[in-house]
Design brief:
By secondary structure, the protein is an alpha+beta fold. It has one domain. It has a four-stranded antiparallel beta sheet. A hairpin with a 4-residue loop joins strand 1 and strand 2. The longest helix is centred in the last third of the chain and has 19 residues.
Length: 74
């Protein structure tokens, strides 16, 4: 199953991909092998995958972005 969402005013897209078990992907942030779901950050201008992340690092990234947004609002 593949899900995607556009980020940064349509310059990048985050694509969630469930691994079938044969792929061996390494998270760019924590350097561990990804087991279940990989997140591909795609640069739409260059039409290529910029980075691959694991689910835990994406959750951490989203929390940091949310906290940054809240600081900007208040």
């Amino acid at each position: 199953m593949i899900e995607s969402e556009e980020l940064e005013e349509n310059l990048t897209k985050l694509i969630k991909y469930e691994l079938a078990g044969k792929e061996k992907l390494i998270c760019k942030d924590c350097n561990t092998e990804i087991k279940n779901e990989a997140y591909f950050l795609v640069d739409l201008k260059a039409d290529k995958v910029s980075f691959i992340y694991c689910e835990e690092c994406i959750k951490k990234f989203r929390k940091e972005e949310l906290a940054k947004h809240r600081k900007d609002v208040y």
